[in-house]
Structure formats: structure tokens, C-alpha cells
Amino acid sequence: MKKRITYILLTAIISWSMSSCSLTEEDLFSESAAIRLNNSIANADTILVSAKNGWEMLYFPTKSSAGYNMLVKFDADFNVTVAAQNTLTTNGQYKTSKSLWDVIQGSGPILTFNTYNDVLHAFSDPQDDGVGYEGDYEFIVLSADSNTLKLKGVKRGTIIYMKRLAKNQSWTGYFEKLDSVNQTIFGRFSTTLKLQINGAEAFSLTNGNTHIFTFTPEGESILDSGYEVPFIITNYGLQLLTPINQESSSAQEFVLSDDKNELVSEDGNTKIISQPASDVLIEIISAKKYMNFNYSDEHMSSIIKNAYYTIDSTVSAKTRKLEYIGFTNNKGWGTSLAIYTTKTSNKIEGFLSFTISETSANELTLKFNNFGDSYDKNGKTYYDSYNLSDFVSLIEGEYIPTIIGHKLSSTTIRLTDKNNPNKWFDLDLK
Amino acid sequence: MKKILTGLLLITLIFSQTSCSEDEFTDSIFVEKSVDKTAFDKWLDANYLEPYNLDFRYRMQDAGSNTSYNLVPTKLEKSEEMAILAKYLWFDVYGEVVNEDFLKYYGPRMIHLIGSAAYNPNQRTRILGTAEGGIKVTLYDCNQLQADNIAFNNEYYFHTMHHEFMHILHQQKAYPKEFETLSAGYYDPMYWQERDDDSTPQEAVIRDHSQYAPLGFVSAYASSQPREDFVETISLYITKSDDWWNELLRQAALPGPNGETMPGTGAGIIEEKINICKKWLLERWDINLDSLRQNVRERQLHVNEAVEKGKAEIDSYK
Description:
The structure holds two protein chains of two kinds. By secondary structure, chain A is α+β, with helices and mostly antiparallel strands. Chain A has three domains: 33-169, Beta Barrel (Lipocalin); 185-274; 281-429, no CATH class. Helix content of chain A is 23%, strand content 39%. Chain A has a nine-stranded antiparallel beta sheet with strand order 4-3-2-1-9-8-7-6-5, covered by helices on one side. In chain A, helix 6 (302-317) packs antiparallel against helix 8 (388-395) and helix 7 (377-385) crosses helix 8. The longest helix of chain A is centred in the first third of the chain and has 18 residues, at 2-19. By secondary structure, chain B is an alpha/beta fold. Chain B folds into two domains: 44-172 and 299-318, Collagenase (Catalytic Domain) (3-Layer(aba) Sandwich); 174-287, Collagenase (Catalytic Domain) (3-Layer(aba) Sandwich), CATH 3.40.390. In chain B, the strands form two sheets. Chain B has a four-stranded mixed beta sheet, with helices on one face. A two-stranded antiparallel sheet of chain B has the order 3-4. In chain B, strand 5 and strand 6 form a beta hairpin. In chain B, helix 2 (39-52) packs across helix 11 (303-316), helix 7 packs across helix 9 and helix 7 packs across helix 10 (289-300). The interface between A and B is large, with 45 and 42 residues.
């Protein structure tokens, strides 16, 4: 019995001793995690300082905030200069501020702006409500190369890119360029844009002037299906906070085309384009804005100009001044042709009810609704006594509208008579 | 046979005890960046780290703060002023009135500056300072420091420093239970802020103390709970002016907000609380509260000179 126990014990120990080293695995990394972290911190330090003209920071305070551009220059002595120019935190003025920076250990290398910077921390300051804009000032460095850093806000988790600024790009010039790009895309009135994927319109994009698009899938209602996608203006176009992933294509950065009429994704498959001119006109008027006739040779054909001149002369003969004629959406009379004249402090606006309707793809009809049971008396006076009747008769008809200028943002629509190319006029946003 | 088996067993056991690892030690993972210290860093080393083993942390690390609040760092120039004034109106005071070693033993090991206040919007309150385990003192809203406005700084910073330091002291040696009986029944940890005067700046000499002083409290916050009452009584006694105290005691002698009449009036209770504090500080810590108060008051007259001198010292490290 004792012998058997000895054999069993011996067998067990020999088996155990044989197995101890048999499953040794090769290390995946040649160095420990801590040393690799130290190295990545040193690497981030080196890259940050290497940009002698600084970095363009595409900053989103939170995942639901519009993006704000900053320029950031890191010095080897851990001083940093940050610049911005926006309406939210710098009152539209170019502003710079200096403070300190560092890259520290955390869950990865963390870039921190650890003393207060008037420009950057304006997005993080809790202000009087204890909340503020909730932006981060500590960022995990997800990746870094000599041209781009991908950062992630420690608290909000927002992905923020930094891109090396060109050596010859002046800092004030950078913000001027952003303003110019913004004007080219959104102009004075931000109309609905369309997101086109592989040639098919997939989404309507609204509220672009807030720099937070509302994406609504084509054919669906904004109320049920609209969702928000923040973006930031870049010096070449715009960049969405998160990429649009549709039909096996992904798009996040969009570049203004050479003719500035559309924004095109890197792979060229996704585009942001304008609506048809008829939709642009109707959208602006529906927003109760004015689309006025522009009384000049460049903006109306001689037929229209002569009719306009007749009204202008009649108004002048009555010692008044013709201020404008245009289309709008009046609270009382709906879509209307408006005419406005003044005589010192005496200011009279009249309205004639009109229907502006799309008859087919990018064709529309202007139709005077005549005087029914109720009408604007001032409008009727202008119609009867100021030669407005002839003008109204003349502009009624079918038109082919076109956008004049950069298509994404232009608020000038040219209407050319479908049957008479010599009859045309431009309508400009007042 | 038995011997052979026993021998084999022993060899196997010895063999099984050996390690199969060939790992060697690597360099330390705690690598200090080889960064040249700034003049301010060197001044902090000379004035806080070397004498007090204290990390004066002005470069904010959010992870080291209360992450449930939205907080921002302090401006560099405000950090410098705060470091100079904290030394002048806190550390040097104890060094002079008690002894040089006192804060080396009992002082905090870290002071962390935060640029903004920690707001509690729902309660309409904000945290001005915290003391954690006798080790770390956090001072908030340091970006608002106004080096030449003593009343403001007293209210928001130096009152807070003495307040938090007294927490550290009473966490080591308990204050008399008798203190808690004087306003018993009138502490309100939930709605104490309702007793404060919202219409007047905190630092104003003339304020409406009517909601708490007649109940024997020196501030609305003192009325939240006894330990806050204890440290508020001492810290306000040290930092507030005679005019402020006289006004407090005048209002404390009146009936309470609901007609309460305290035995000996609220003013009497406040005086009694101060006496308890004085006795506790003297007997348990060998600190004369009136000497401390007098020293702070004299120093407050020379704050601007202290700041100028401190900045010159910092510059001398450049």
C-alpha cells in the first residue's frame, strides 16, 4: 500500500514538473507597457514641438456641439500659444493666449493644457451656471504622426484632430480663409443642402449655418427621422464630427470643388450639393425673407426693366420713392409680390397675393391670384394707380430658374421665361 | 528499491522548484521628464517642497480633482500670487505664532489650485475649498484672486485656507462635544444656503446675518453641521475685520428668523463658541488664537509688499 502511494506521488510530481514550461509564449511586444507608454509620450512631445508654425486644431467641445477651429503652437519649454476667432468665445475677434502644456501618463499619453488659457479654456470654463460649454482640455493621444494627431477628450470622449499648419500660412490669414469658406458654403441665408451618395440624393441637410447639420433621409420627415451631425469648417471645406457610413462608403472630410459649387468627399463618392434653384427660391420666400428685383441692366432684361421703370416713374411723379419690389411671404396675405414706397416718414408697403409653384423638375410658374373677397388695400392701390398691373401681367408665366454665383450659398436666382429667353430677371435676397 | 525511489523523488522535487523564467530587470518605468524647471517651480521647491514636503500643484490634473464638476486650471500669474499669499498669510503665520516645525508636522502635503469654482447649480452653492484626509487641500476659483482686495481674498481664499486647515487639525484631535450642544437643533445640512444673504457680496462688511447669527452661527455655512460650525468660527475669527464682527454680533443679539430667543442671545453663543475654540487650540495645540488673529491682521496690511517681494524672489530664479 505504502509502495503504491509512493508510485502515485512520484508520477504526479514528475508529470507536474514536466508541464511547467511547456506553454511559454513569445512576448507580443519587445518592451513593457510602461516603457512603451513613456516612449509614446516622448514621441508625442517631439511631434507636437516639431510643427514650427503650429497645428490646426479641429475642436468639438462635446459630441453635440458645433466645431471650433483653433491654432496651437507648442514650444519645447512647455509654453503653448492658442489662437481662435469665433462668435462664441472671442466675440468674432482674433484672440491669442499663452499658457503651459504637457504630455502626461494616463490611459495612454495625455496631452494636457494644465494652466488656464484664455482661448482654449473658454470652452471648458463652467461659467456662472456650473456647466459652460463642457469642452475638454485633456486629450488622450490616440495616434500621432508628423502631419496629424488624433485626440480623444478625456471627459467627453470627443474625437479631435490636429493637423500640421503649413509653414507659410499666417495665423490671421487662416481665420480669414475659414470665414471665406464659410461664406462660400452658407452665405447670407443657409438653405437646405443635399447629400448625394454614388449619384443618388440620400439626405437633406438643414441648419448648416449653426455648424450642426440636421440629416434627414430623403423621403422622410425631419420630425421623425432627422438627426444632428456637428461639423467644423476647414480651410478647404468642412469635416463632420463622425463619418457618414452608407452603402459601403464612408465620408467625413469634404473639399470644396474648384468651381465652389459642391463639396466632395475624399473618395469622390459622396457630395454635398445645392437644391434645385426653384427649391432655393421657394425656401427663402417661405422663410418670410424678401427676394427682390434688382433694377439694373445686369440683373433684368430690357423688357422687365422697362416695366419696372414705368412703376418707378409713376411713383416718383407722386413724389414718392420706390424702395423695392419683390416676393415674400406675408403673415396676412401669404406668398405675395410686395411693393414698398416712402415719402419722408410716410412708408407704405402693399401686397398682391401670388402663387409660386414648381410645375416640373426645376420649372416654376408665377401666377397673380387676383383680388378675391379679401385683399390688401395698399396692394390694390399700387396695382390700380401706380402701373403695377402691367408689371404683374408681364411677370406672370412659366420660368426656368437658375442659381447665379456659387451654388451652395447663392441667394440670387435668375428666372428666364420658358418661352422667351429675352425675358428674364434676377431675384436677390434683401 | 525504496532508496532509489526516494532519491528520484528528491531530485524531481528539487528540479520542480527551479524557475523557468529568464526575465531580467528593466529600467525604472517611472521616468521623470528631463524638463528645465521654471523660476516659479524653483521658488515652489524652495518655499514649499523643501521646508514642508508639500507639492504645490498649480498645473491642474483633472484626474486629481473632483471629476463630477466642470473645472478649469488656474492662470499662471494667479497661481504665483496664490502661492506667495498662502505662504505669507498661512504658513509663515504658524511659523511665527506657533513654531517653524508646526506645519511641517501637521500641514497638508499637497495644495491643489483650481481656476474655477465647483458649482452645485441645484443648491445654488459652490465649493471654495476641500481638505482630504489631512493630506490634500484644494482651493477653487483661484482665477478670481484679486491680490489687492483683502476683503475679497479673505472671504474666498484665506478664510478657506484656515477653514480647511482647522479640519485637518480637528481630524487629528477632536474638538469638545460641548461645542455641538450650543446651537443644537438649529443645524440644517440640507437647506443652510437658504439662510444666506444672496443680495450682498460675501465679502461685504454690512450683510444680512439675521437668518443664522441669532441662532449662534457666524455664517450660513456654519449652520450646516457642527464640524463646519467649528472651523467657520475659527477661520472667520482669524480673517474678518472688527467692523464685520461687530455687525455680526449686533445682529446676533436680535431675535431669530422665527422669533427664536436663544439663552444668552445668539451673540452670547458665538462668544461662548469662540472661547471653546480658543481653549481647544491652546490646550490641545499650544496655539493662541488671538495671537494668530493679530499676526494675520498685521500681515494683511502688507499684502502688496509681500506679493511684490514674492514675485521678485521668483524672478531671481530666472
